[in-house]
Write a structure and sequence with these properties.
Jelly Rolls; two-stranded antiparallel ribbon; 3 helices
Length: about 150
């Protein structure tokens, strides 16, 4: 099958426009959130992340709801001042997420992988934690992230 160069360019422009629109929608939805750099250190690699931080009660309630696209190294942190058992859900969240629960020692205390989009099932931390980091579903498996690995914001 032969393709005309103009047709190929049109297909490429359409694909790129869709990606740009999705990234722009995510940026618009999360415009009021603080951005931060973070790192997950595994025994074999350090993964640098660009995250949003849900600091206010309103931001924690919103989280990644209505987001349709998240970059591979993007995520959202829900920090706590004091350790607590956290309860999360996926209501109005359109993409599967990995939830990495961060212990008071800065290490990953537990992982809930590949959460089900739009589910109202309660997902809880394995015990008192200082926060949860949400990343694209499958991130932990793709990058060998496991409980005990270190998490840090810088």
């Amino acid at each position: 099958m032969r393709h005309r160069p103009a047709a190929l360019l049109l297909m490429l422009a359409t694909l790129l426009a869709g990606s740009a629109a999705t990234a722009a929608d995510t940026a618009r939805l999360l415009a009021g959130f603080t951005r931060a750099r973070a790192m997950i250190e595994t025994p074999v690699a350090c993964h640098l992340l660009d995250i949003w931080v849900a600091e206010t009660p309103e931001q924690r309630a919103q989280g990644l709801m209505f987001v349709h696209d998240l970059g591979e190294y993007e995520g959202m942190l829900f920090p706590r001042r004091e350790p607590a058992v956290l309860h999360m859900w996926m209501k109005n969240t359109y993409i599967p997420l990995d939830m990495l629960f961060i212990g008071r020692d800065g290490r990953i205390a537990g992982i809930t992988a590949q959460t089900t989009p739009l589910s109202e099932t309660t997902l809880s931390s394995p015990g008192p934690v200082l926060g949860v980091l949400e990343l694209n579903g499958g991130f932990a498996a793709r990058h060998g992230v496991r409980p005990g690995d270190r998490f840090a914001i810088y």
